[in-house]
Amino acid sequence: MKKFFVCLMVLFITASACFADELRLDRETQYQKKIMAIGFRILNANQIEQRMTFYYSPNKNVNAVTYLTSKQIAVFKGILPFLDSDDEIAAILCHEISHGIDAHKGLWRRLTMTMAPKSYELKADKRGIDLMVNAGYNPVAMIVVLNKIAEEPNWFETSSSHPNGSERLAALYEYIYTKYPAYLIDNDYKNNLYYQNFLLTSKDARKTIKEKYQKQSIKPVNNKK
Ligand SMILES: [Zn+2]
């Protein structure tokens, strides 16, 4: 009987040692693994044949970048406190993967991306929505994330490479409204603090969008996967 308990103790200690090994992965390694797994899931689900790689960077800026020549996508430490779920991490990655797809189209495309970054930003937001839906993520997360981080300068004050936040959010809402309306009807984010704030600050823009499509008699259809 005593032997049995000794065996049990040994087993327990070995098991907890293995478990401790798992836990010993530091935070930064966990971030790297998470970002990489979501990134590759998006590439595979969308059958994207161009190669891209994903990195966690300890940079404290609130940002993520796609390096146009190396096709490396880096998610900065500074943006992580703004991301509350896999859907929100996927939103950031899908936007960057869209830049990565363009970056693969050669030197000329990379030059135009550098010269006219704002149009590529809007494109990356919209194509990012398609990439999210195809990979099984909720595209409303893109609105939620941008509402937390996008800048709001007046047009004459802006020096940024990104369009004004309200403009981006309205364009995203319109895109989801026309292409994936089911996500807005059956909205998992309806009680989300940041989504509620988007609803509050986009009343006029959303009204204009609704009127625009009522006039064109396009009705949102339920096409949620
Ligand atoms: Zn971008």
Description:
This protein has about 220 residues and is mostly helical. The protein has one domain (about 1-215). It has ten helices and three strands, in the order H-H-E-E-E-H-H-H-H-H-H-H-H. It is globular. The mean pLDDT is about 90. Bound molecules: zinc ion (ZN).
Output mean pLDDT: 88
* Morphology call: globular
Could you tell me which ligands this complex binds, including any ions or cofactors? zinc ion
Q: Report the radius of gyration as a whole number of Å.
A: 21 Å
Structural class: mainly alpha
Strand order of the largest sheet: 1-3-2
Describe this structure in a few short sentences:
With 225 residues, this protein is mainly alpha-helical. The chain is 61% helix and 6% strand.
Keywords:
binds zinc ion; 6% strand; three-stranded mixed β-sheet; mainly alpha; 225 residues; 61% helix
Present the secondary structure layout:
Blueprint: H1 2-23, H2 27-45, E1 53-57, E2 64-67, E3 72-76, H3 86-103, H4 107-115, H5 117-134, H6 140-149, H7 165-179, H8 182-185, H9 193-201, H10 203-215
Parallel strand pairs: 1-3
Antiparallel strand pairs: 2-3
Bound molecules: zinc ion.
